[in-house]
Amino acid sequence: MTAARPEVLLPSSPEDAVRAFGDGTGVTVVAGGTIVMPDLTYGRLQPARALLLTRSGLDTITREGGTVRLGATVPVAALEDAPEPLAATARHVADVEIRAQGTVGGNLCAAPGAGAPRGDLQAPLIALGAHVRSTGAGGERTELVEEFLHNGSSEGRLVLEIEFDEPQAGARAALDRPHTHDYTALSVAACRGVDGTVRLAASGAAPHGIRLPSAERAYAQGGDAERAGREAIADATFADDALASAWYREQMLPVLVRRALTDLQETA
Known about the structure:
By secondary structure, this protein is an alpha+beta fold. It has a domain at 169-266: 2-Layer Sandwich (Enolase-like, domain 1). It is 30% helix and 22% strand. The chain is built from 10 helices and 12 strands. The protein has helices at residues 14-21, 36-41, 86-91, 96-101, 104-108, 122-127, 145-150, 213-220, 225-232, 246-266; strands spanning 7-9, 27-30, 49-52, 61-64, 67-71, 131-136, 141-144, 157-165, 169-174, 187-192, 198-203, 210-211. Strands 4-5-8-6-7 form a 5-stranded antiparallel β-sheet. Strand 2, helix 2 (36-41) and strand 3 form a beta-alpha-beta unit. Helix 8 (213-220) packs antiparallel against helix 9 (225-232) and helix 9 (225-232) runs antiparallel to helix 10. The protein starts with 6 loop residues before the first strand and ends with a helix. The mean pLDDT is 93.
C-alpha cells in the first residue's frame, strides 16, 4: 500500500516558519535534509506534514559586539571560519557535500544514528556556552545547548537561532578514523571564555553531546590536563556502536581531553 503524500509547508520568512510549525504536532522539519531524506527514502519516516526551511530566511550569520548569532539553516560549510572550536569541528563534519547541505540546526538536533554518533556540532556549541532559541509547544524559549539536549527539548521544537559570545580561544581533539562519510567516534571541545573560564564538552561519550563538569573542576583547581582527563570519565555514558567499543572510548576520552587542553594552553 502506497503511503499518503505529506502536506508540504514552504514558509518564506522566520515568522511564517513559526506559524507553520505551531506546536510541532505531526510536523517533520526538513532543513538540509542530510538526515531526514535517507529516513524518508527507506520508509523509516512517514510524515503527515513536511516543513521545508529552504526559503525561511533562517540562514543568516551575524558577529557584532562580541556576540555570534547563527540562524538554524546556516550550512555547516559556512562555519569553517567561525570561532574555535566550532570552526575546526565544522571542517571535519562528514564530507564536502554533506557540509554544504547540512545545517547547524539539523546537526544540533541530530539524534544518535543506528550505528554511529551524530551531531558533531553539539560539543563545540556546549563548550562555547551557546544558547539556542526555539519554538514549539508552550511558545518560544531560550536555553543553554546542554539543557536543550539533556532535557529532551530538541524533540518537538523548531530551532530558530543559536547565540554565543566570542571566546578567547578554543581547541578540538578527536579520534582519527578515516571513513567514507568520516563519522566522528569521539571528540572533545575546549573553550576559554573572555573571563578565562575553561569549558569542556564531548561528543560520542553519551547519546548526545555533553558537558564535562568534573574535568572542568579538576582543571580549574590547578591547570592539570592529565587529572582533568581522568575526571572526565565520570561525566560520560559510554556505549558500543559500529565505530568503537565503550571500552575504547573510555580509554581515549582522557587522552582527547588532555590533547584539547594542551592545545588550548598553547593558544594565545
